[in-house]
Amino acid sequence: MNTLVLDGTIVKREEARYTPSGMQVFEGVLRHEGEVREAGGIRKLEFECMVVAFGETASRLQCLELPARVVLKGYISPRSRRTQRLLVYITDFN
């Protein structure tokens, strides 16, 4: 199963664009800061990752005032068939 829930702050977004079929696309950067338990200790995490969303979710994300704190739901997948570079695809958020 490939599901993801990730909290963080959207710190950057590209200008809204549309697919050839007219669907809105959101592309941005999410900054996450947190801690996880690992090997009996606490590991501090700080990273940024690229995120993308389509349709209604993209439209809602595009309207947020940045920086925007969010909890994202989605999945991880390569950006395209030609690359293994991973993106977080957002299916919903609050």
UniProtKB/TrEMBL annotation:
Keywords assigned: DNA replication, DNA-binding, Primosome, Transferase
Domain of life (superkingdom): Bacteria
InterPro entries attached to this UniProt entry: NA-bd_OB-fold (IPR012340), Primosome_PriB/ssb (IPR000424), Prisomal_replication_PriB (IPR023646)
UniProt xrefs under Pfam families: SSB_1 (PF22657)
Entry GO MF terms: DNA binding; transferase activity
Protein name: Single-stranded DNA-binding protein
Organism, as annotated: Mesosutterella porci
